[in-house]
Batch of 4 targets.
Target 1
Amino acid sequence: MARCCLILGDQLSTNLSALKGLEPEDAVVMTEVWSEASYVKHHKQKIALIFSAMRHFAADLRESGREVIYTELTDSENSQSLTSEVQRIQLGHQFDAWCVTEPGEWRLKEEFELLASRLPVPFEICPEERFICSHDEFNEFLAGRKQPRMEHFYRRIRQSTGLLMDGKDPVGGQWNFDHDNRKALDQRETPSPPTWPVDVITEEVFELVNTHFSDHFGELDKRSFRWPVTREQALEMFDHFIEERLESFGDFQDAMILGKDTLFHSLISTSLNLGLLSPLEICVAAENAYRDGAAPINAVEGFIRQIIGWREYVRGLYWAYMPEYKDRNTLNASWPLPSFYWDETKTDMVCLSEAIRNTRQNAYAHHIQRLMVTGNFALIAGCSVDAVCEWYLSVYADAYEWVELPNTLGMALFADDGVMASKPYCSSGKYIDRMSNYCKSCRYRVKEVTTEDACPFNYLYWDFLHTHRVRFQSNPRMAMILKNIDRFGDEKLEAIKAQAAAFRARVTQNGGDARTLFKERSP
């Protein structure tokens, strides 16, 4: 009985559940299809990363003796969708059965369930075992809770895995060291991440992507592309983080500095989400660095919380609340996403320009740039939830809907009415000024609210809070902030509302361009 295993582009692991049951005579199918590369206009680097990693993984499988049927994007017989490729290959090879590991996105799960009902042979969807928490375990966590909270989930996973635990107690006597991880960067040097020569496989993929996806966002060349495309490269990137970055990661994980695109961040999210690394192996390695005295507890705990806390948590929420979750828009946000999200030269706001420049050049921005700059602006400006979610899914090399949607719709935009976050992650320009050096070179004045030169984050922030005050006033975490509106007085509040309305009108009239002409400032 000859079986065939379909491997998706984000399942590049030999530990896949669908692979484990294969016999030596069974085959593997991998295929590059237009439908997956273009259902949103993915960043060129993201497409190149996935195609190159797929081709390298297929080569490794063949070297191990496995038969691999691989369809490249430009193959003349390519039907350009995953399900139609399965049907086409089945006609040609007459396999007795198919299997696939559960896909990460809801839309693919629906497509595969429909395919299973139409294929003339069994098509098994095997459980995804590369995450620490299963769907059943997450649903058990949700049971009986009015509102799920990541901190409770995180502690549960710490206890079940034993990570950073001394018996029943957390290492260091507390679960969370986040208060130690909010320092602005000092003058220290930041390490450069490892790079690798672009091999023949990746070079061919570059040419393919630049030819067939030339109208997609982002840069793609040997200078800008830094992502691991094999497990060996992914391990090298992670080892570099442990040895060169982890010690300072905690202190400065929220910092933002002009021209420093990666600071002390790990740069392994693409490798994790492709399957080149596993969450448990990297958490164990980080814990070992702490126990060996190579990294402080606040850095190691903060890193592990990102993996077994946020990453596992957002995946659990995604599968628990989909497909209805995707349609939520609690704050009725509908303002068109400004065009400067695709072209950083169309805004005078240095923080936004810098985050979007990094995104365009590198298909990357770290979590504070995503949450408290691009996400914060989209929230307080009232940008369309659908448009913002599509942007985040499109532009980042590590973005897949299971991780992007809860982080964007829930955490950044508060569009799920508090399922993901206990309060909106919004701020004025004051937070950005505290955590970066962006404001020092910005055309706008971060300490002003209603003047012509005032930072747009300031008046948009207060206008946002005023607009949604009735909704937020029952939230205990918002009470103190909302009281500040009462101190403004009617005149200042009207000036704030007028500034916000004028900003939106100007950007709309300029086709999404946020630049404006100012008279020369006095010193």
Target 2
Amino acid sequence: MEKVSKPLVNGGYPLHTFEDVESLYEVYITNPDDKNMIRRAFDFILEMHKDQKRKSGEPYYHHLIEVAYIVASLHCGPVTITAALLHDVVEDTDTSINDIEKMFGEEVAKIVDALTKIQRLKLSRITSEEFEAEDHRKIFIGMAKDIRVILIKLADRLHNLRTLGALSPERQLAISKESMEVFVPIAHRLGLDVIKSEMEDLCLKYLEPEKYNEVIKLLSKKSKTMSKSLDNLKKRLADVLFEHGIPFDISARVKSIYSIYAKMYLKGHPFNEIYDILALRIITDSEMRCYQILGLIHKMYKPVPGRFKDYIAMPKPNLYQSLHTTIVSGDGNFYEVQIRTEEMDKIAETGVAAHWAYKENSGYSSKQEQLDIEDKLHWFRDFVSMSSETANDTNAKEYVENLTQDIFESNVYVFTPKGKVIELPVGSTPVDFAYRIHTKVGDTCVGALVNGVMVPLNTVLKTGDMIEIKTSKNSVGPSEGWLEFVRSSAAKSAIRKFIAKKNAEMLREEKIAKGKQSCIDAFGDRDIDEAEMMEYLDNEKLLEHFGVDSVDDLFVAVTGRKPVPSAIIDYLHIKKTVALPQGGFAKRKSGGDCPVYAKGGGNKIAISLANCCTPLPGDDIVGYITKGKGISVHRKNCPNVAKEKERLIDVYWRSDIEFATYPVDIMITASDRNNLLVEIMNMLTLNKVIINSIHAKSNANSSATITATIQVSDAKRLHDIFAKLLSIVGVYEVDRIIH
């Protein structure tokens, strides 16, 4: 094995040896097989990259050692460190992924394969916005599959940024720009502040060199003038904490160059009004101690109003926790003080890596790790879902815009009624909230309360709002109009899927209706009505013969003339006219023939439609044999017959009834507002619905209840009316009334 010497510095950064990497991972990896795998990977890259040099002139394998060093410093596992060492070997040598799998196993090979595919996306020279977006999409999709791919890629990019000085100015700008757009936001959202901050500073050095140098000068001058004041503050705080017996570690933190630049040049704050340039960080042993320390500090020093943040009670989306307060010291200087536990500090520095650091002999599972991360980091779950769902059906530019909007831009934080914090993109509405809770909640959403008040579904939410979603089993689902105001890509995707599915179902329903009518006509030529035809067709052997799973599937097939109705009749051996079964008919109380019959009932059985549930043609119905009053027809879900078993009888809607309307009692629930009743009546009138009666009342919770009796011809017509009622602003539930 070639001995690797350790150069002193390169561009201000020390060059590490493999022995330095070993010193990091041997603290938490002791398994001889795992250590041997990492060592074999190192030996392999020495051999495969031995003749390759970087632009700086140093051996290429130095880069691989540095990437491995960074991931080992994050306490990544043996597979991740091995893949980090090997991440360029397929791209830059004759080694194949199959070779990697044979030598180092399937897990390592999969990670290296993903990294290789990302690497092969050559950085465009920004000549085509669409091509650049496609590059970025493939990078995101490649990284979403495995969190370890992200960590290695971030380490790879960080070291490349550290050594940008050896590249041309054009490449320096291109790589810095892409790093700021793609990798810095991901590092931020994963809570990898130690990587994010360094990346930002390095990128700024090449993107805005004059402003970068200006910030350094101002920062250097400020640090010199405040160093004595800072030391005095540290000493006084340490004395007070010691007196109260509170365990602590106190240190100073200087705000990053990029953070100061952002406040000065992006937000327009003068340098002397940036209060958190110098900060004190106090580490203690428990959450309770954090609040105790905060109380002592506020007792000693005046806090700056509006500058206190409790990220312990309400962690950031990347799991960051800490107390932040800004105080005025005795000499008039402003200082930010951060108070946290040791565990919180680890998460603040290395984010997701601290939460899921490799723990030997703990039943570690990369798949479970991925699921855990998706469970705790909702944005990452959306990132994975968006990347997998839209890889093929969304153009690259739209995908990158959606991802940037959902994952990387500012967010609002709202609450469920039970106090759970939900993170949403800025500009989100109750519909976005509903879909974040669950797709089914979004699909059945008909109304929303924000802070206890009913609001339109397109209301823009603010941080701190408490949201309650109203759903309805009778909801017709989202409309295309929702796409005009929802903000989150998860909601947009779910709405589009629902609409596409609904359109497909409507097309299928049309085919079913068309095929069914063809069969009705063919069977009718043999004097067989619809009800008896359905009995003929509900035959497993017949369905199996024609290669379908259900009668509806058979009707769809008939629409395509495979088979034709005559082929079905031939299969059933129906050669002659079949007599219709006799039905018993009775007068409705309102007059006219009853549209229902019972088989074999003769013509003396009285049949009437029940007034309690007002069944309509098209409803699933059942007959109830009354004492001395014949058969009362109910909807099958009518609670008045739900527990009956002995006195029920099968009944059927007639297929030859003439058009008629039937009274139905309905109840509409909506948010109370002006002109609501007028709009409901106008809608019913425009759709030629006869209104027998209508009543409205206001409720204490800002809602309104409207009851009405309307005349409709059948269940489908009623469903269509319900859909139109639910489209009225504020209406969130419509039901049939059962008396």
Target 3
Amino acid sequence: MKHPLSAAKLIGDKLIGDTPFAYRLEVAPNHPVLDRMHCVDFGRTFGLAKPAVAFALTQLRAAKTGKIEIQLEHSDACTIWLNGKKVYAKSGARKINLRRDERSFEMSFAFTADLRAGANTLLIKSETRGAEWRVYLQPPSAKGAVVNGAAHPEVGLRGVPNVDARIAELTNWLVIGPFPAKRGVTLPPENEFVFGKMYDGLDAPVTWTIPKIEILGGLIDPLPWGTNYNWNYHNGGTAWAMQLLAEATGEKKYGDYASRFCDFHLEGIPFVEHQVKTLNAVESANHWIVDTPLLDFTLAPSLPFIHRLRTERKFANRAAYEKWIFRMLEYARHEQIRLPGSGIYTRTTPVKYTTWVDDMFMGIPFLVQAALLARDKKTRLEFLDDAAKQVLGFNEQVWDADAKLYVHARYSDNPVKLPHWSRCNGWAIWAMSEVLEHLPETHSLRPAILKHFQIHARSLLQFQNADGFWPNVLDRQDSRNEVSGTAIFVMAFARGLRHGWLTREKFLSAIENGWSALDSRIENDGTVHDICAGTMCTEDEEYYVARPFYKNDTHGLFAVLFAAMEVARLNVFQAVRKELSPRSAAAAKTSLTFVPA
């Protein structure tokens, strides 16, 4: 069996070798289904200098007859025809008003599309008064809403007569314009759709063409779960773990990896904003860093930034880190949605005020780090108070007192009980351990948090199987052994034992067996197997049981790195205790303030 730090170094070395922190040029992808936002940017194609009119044409292909609602957002006037019938019209001047939600955009307008089975022709007429000139379409909130059983239709030029398949691969739209902006005048595309014919345009004859095709910066060699340098909480967590690995081993290269992660994303923000806001590539590489109101893409991936600010006084772009973290501190205090009456972090997905256990990790460790960064006692205590109250507030919402486990989430409007997913229970116990490590011993909420940590830890013990693993769904023994949850529990138990929150008699063998299980999934080249993919929340237990598993998914890598370092620290802690004189050992024992579970 590998020494924990040796195993962590294998993983760290592979991360360093596998992560390019670079973009590659690629043609903007053309998505063929109307299950997300689509944009026709007339301004990029025809310019924005003066008032004009242009048209865009596509087909919606439905598997069967039915109605769907289509949301839209547009500048100035817009008219839409479906199969020759006018289904939407707005006149006047207006600006684009897209509102960013957690995993979607909200739009101002909508129309009902009465689709027939097979091909349906959609024609858009858009008018600009000389400024922005775009039309956006999507299903309601892009969350999969359908009406009367109609599934999301295909969208694009596939199957359109006399359109080369290579064109359909590049774009979903044909466009024509610009025409003079004369209100009340019927323009030729409203009456006919003919290739090979010229029409009188604004400044010159025009014919049907395609929109401007954009070149984007994409990620290099992405896997189904992503890459090591997507902007998200688990890659930020991995960078944080690499900082701690550098401190544990004295090897600078691991900290350099974390700095490259932070620098790459900070320096890349203008480029990402250009892709999202100018090129309308709202799902392009690392788009989550741009104005996304979700802890997964704000506080949690910022952990390596705040850690570096705390631990490294001087470095070249410290001012950029400070600017970013100040923004995140404001977000943590004033912008992230909170549950009314409780004050804990909550979400609008899938419904408003859904409380996810995940957010115990996504938000609470950042609050603790913010307290450690604070320069004055008052601010420090404010962040620690918030972190402590959040722990207990989450316990009121997502703790299943009967099972003594956490459910993955709780809907605000539905009392249904969600499954006891392994990794979500990991997020909870991890967050509690972060608070307990730094909350003053005299803090009034500490005893309640410690007691809950101990109850949860004792409950988790019974679900560890003979192989040393915890299953992906804790109370489903037919669920697969899973690495990320196992790693977090091992980490939390080792941390609890090291601090005296848990007893050696009850937890040491679980830690040893758990680390042995994890070690069996770590190859000598640093590959780590059996990590559950990212997971949405649902009451369907089979969804969790059937989730795909991947190797080297950072959802699990950073948990394994933390587990390895905590197990290694526990070994050092035990060795020091053995070297102490009997008197010193007794003093050390009595200095453990908290009553073990």
Target 4
Amino acid sequence: MPAPLKHVTPNTPMGANLIADGATFRVWAPHALRVYVLGDFNGRVKDDSSLLTKDAHGHWRGFIEGAKDRDRYIFHVDGTGSSGPKRDPYARELQSPFPSDCIIRETDFPWHETGFVTPRFPDFVIYQLHVGTFYTPNLPRKAGTFLDAARKLPHLASLGVTALQLLPIQEFQSSFSLGYNGTDYFSPEMDFAVEDADLGPYIDEVNELLAARGLTPYRVEDLHGEMNQLKALIDLAHVHGLAVLLDVVYNHAGGSFGDQSLRFFDRQPESGGVAANSLYFNGREHAGGDVFDFGKPEVRDFLIRNATFFLREYRVDGLRYDQVSVIDHDGWPHGWSFCQDLTATVNHFHPGAIDHAEYWPVNPHVVKPRPEGAGFDTTLTDGLRIAVRDVIREAAEPDERPLAMRRLAASLWPEGFAESWRIVQGPENHDIVYRGREQRVARLGDFHNPRSWYGRSRARVATGISLTAPGIPMLFMGQEFLEDKQWADDVEHHADLLLYWAGVEAGDKQMLDHIRFTRELIGLRWREPALRGEGFRPVHAHDQNRVLAFHRWVPGEGRDVMVVVHLATFNRYGYRIGFPSVGGWREAFNSDVYENWVNPNVVGNGGGVSADPIPMHGFDASAALVLPANSVLVFARG
């Protein structure tokens, strides 16, 4: 007799789920001849009692009495092409090392109910990080983990960012990875977990973070395994007022899969080609992996369930979708409708969560409502990033050549977007400053000596433009403390490219000054709602003088702000720029203050200027300004 169908209904979840005195198992393998579930609960005996029953939809189901939390299991699939073990595509956790068993897991976790609410989308300031390289105190024995990242939450909270965007954390089979070659979509990366035996110091440190807020401490058993450690990172982020976004890869999977993986799951013959027999994939390739078959309802359901799973079980505040353009193009003709189904489901399930798309070239239809658009909330843009990096790079040449300030002005609000908060922009990200690609902004500012005044001041300008321009700004890890090296995911062979936390922890003044600069400029975004508002107009852009000025305001309210960027290497005096109204304007921010903070030789406008009734740049008023070399100034009304 096969495993009984006790507790199995049409609504039984996929994967392994504890219920009553055992667990239900359900897996999609429509062309398999037989599927068994083998585990600690049945001695891994492949016989009739471990055989699952196939339904009309190609799902194999059964109930195994005695299965319990943290039992290991694996599916054994007999197909027409091969026979052998397969990991559960819906496994919540895996057993290290590969090839590995799946682990049955309870979904309980002692979340702290602090009343945290995901920020409004215009209030997002995103900080992108890679868990394995962000903070690595245990090298060379072990790279960074979820709990290592948690140890830096006070730093990130004090910086003022409002959301952490983690590079993909789903299980990948290689030792090091950016995360875009995942194979096990419901399982957090095993290498990002601290082993049970090593939890002692971590439990003490994270409980200090909770005690500082009067919250209940974790027990050691609460943090066993990568699943609960990722939950702890998210829980602690919420405790610190930070949203968490996960980067998910729904365009393709893998690169190296292994025989026990998702690929050829029901063990059809591989000689027929991926398109014919791979079950989950459509025969096309991207980035060394296989593109999902978006024409199959079961594949669409698998990916959409994955999105709602992380929103529900991990309480994440949104998802960043990798290369939606690949879903659209290589998933044709079904990719676009899949995106519409994905966003419709996620928005219904969690209306406050952000759906953030990467699409190249930039396509405003991605963020238009369905049915005209794909229904994502925001999308990554590259115009401002390219323009900022170009002017910083050109400014570093040893002359006073004209800079493309007019092009920079034109890039501040990309065409086709009705709302500025729908665009996400920043001068650095994981792709751009990865090893062997482009340099970080401090080194762009002075390639030979990024710690010189030239490098530091131009880095302030690059970050300053991003934090005052329209759209949601995004920082890449280390940008806030003047990191000038590229980065790499392979910490074993490129430890020289790790973030220089040692300098921060030792009190390196230049790094601390840059942190202060970033923190106080983010703080200005909160004090001046115009910097998060929809009002925007380029006022003045002069290539030869290296000057850009733009106006920000809150429609219907005013709250006017003027931002002035100056990239000459000398100070300018009496430089007249149009202002929205006559009268006094506070110099609310001056990046020159942060040069050897507090800069004893600061150049500026003495805390404010008075706009005269002299028309200029389309305004009825203008003001004569002092523009410090390589600077960003912000003026606010009143």
